Each structure stands twice: as structure tokens, then as C-alpha cells.
Amino acid sequence: MQKFEWDEDKNHINITKHGIDFAVACRIFEGFTLDVEDTRFDYGEVRVKTLGQIEQVAVLLVVHTDRHGTYRLERPTQRNAHAMSKRYKRALILNELAKVPDSDIDYSDIPELGPEFWENAKVTPPRTKPVVSLRLPEDVIEFFQGDDPRGYTQRMAAVLKAYAEAQKSKGP
User: Fold this and answer.
1) Which H or E element spans position 123?
2) Mean pLDDT of 70-81
3) Is residue 92 predicted with pLDDT exceeding 80?
4) Is the pLDDT reported for residue 119 higher than 90?
5) Which of 10, 57, 109, 140 is the most buried (most CB within 10 A)?
6) Which of 21, 14, 147, 167 is nearest to 96 (CA)?
7) What is the spatial distance between Cα 19 and Cα 84, in angstroms, rounded to a whole number?
8) Which domain of life is it from (predicted)?
9) N-to-C CA span, the chain
10) How far apart are CA 159 and CA 76, in angstroms?
């Protein structure tokens, strides 16, 4: 599974300026994306511009680095700090994001996707595990949540994976 990290101060700036939380932005990696190296500046590391879509609701451009299998989301280099057309007090949810008119989108720090992007972009398949929805008894959910509800779905996945591996080792 792809891991993501980011600087919370940069995330707060992104929320204030664009209304988009990096936790939402990284969801573009759940689907196919277009990727091209960001060569506008010498960053001292390889940065990639990735164009993707979230649930057919929002098309986003994410700039990131790959640090040993962990994608670090970066804010694009800012060209004009005073060009903010609108400030957001909180991150928008997807249905709110879909309703933002183009005239309210601040493009001042978003890299332009010129002809070189479209000529050089590579189509990349989804980088995350498939999302599955299922109904479970409440007591099962409570068991996996235990004293710490964070990460309970990962605990469920680990149990299911161990079971699947045990069944595979038994043979047909």
C-alpha cells in the first residue's frame, strides 16, 4: 500500500488557499493518473507533477516526491503569495469542492500543464489497495476498535490476510 506524508504547516496553507486537505488530495492515487517530472526548478530531489481525479468529482494536480516508497506531498513553489482570491477556514469536502466555480480557483502556485506535460506524461495505474465496503456486526467492529479506534481497518485487513495465507498454504 502506498504511504503518504506531508508537512502540516504546508497542509494548513493549502487548506487556507485552496480549501483542499492533503489527506483528500492524495486520493488521486486511488485511480489512474498522469505523471511527469517537475523540471521547472532544481529542487535537489526529483519532484513529480501528478494529475488525477477523485471519484469523478474533482481533478487535482499534486506535486510530490517519492522517498523510499513514501510519497511526500509538496506545495508547488509559490510564484505570487498575494494572489489569493479566496481564503478557506476549513478543508472542503468533495461535494463542496465540486461546486467551487473556476473563477474562485487560485492558480498562482499551480504549475501550468503546457504541451510538454501532455507529450511526456505517463499513465500510472492506481497505487493503493482497492476500497471494499462490507457490512459487519457491531460487536466485530467494536472488537477490532478495542481501546484505540485508529487503525482498526488495518487490523481487520491483517487478520484477513493471515487467514488467506493460511488457506493458501493448505493447498487445494
Assistant:
1) strand 122-124
2) 55
3) no
4) yes
5) 109
6) 21
7) 12
8) Bacteria
9) 28
10) 40
The whole-number average pLDDT for the span 140-149 is: 86
- Contact between 16 and 92 (Cβ < 8 Å): no
DSSP state for residue 103 in the 8-state scheme:
G
Task: Reduce the DSSP state of residue 2 to 3 states and report it.
Answer: coil
**Cβ burial, residue 16 (10 Å; 0-12/13-18/19+):** middle
Contact 111, 38 (CB under 8 A): yes
| pTM reported for the whole predicted model | 0.61
pLDDT at 145 over 70: yes
32: CB partners within 8 A, 6+ apart = 52, 123, 124, 125, 126
CA 109 to chain centre: 18
Residue in this structure with the C-alpha cell 513553489, named with its chain if needed: 77
Which runs of consecutive H residues, i.e. helices, occur in the chain?
Answer: 8-18, 22-25, 94-98, 115-120, 138-145, 152-170
- In the chain, domain spans: 3-124, 138-170
In the numeric block, which cell numbers belong to residue 91? 478543508
Q: How far apart are CA 142 and CA 137, in angstroms?
A: 9
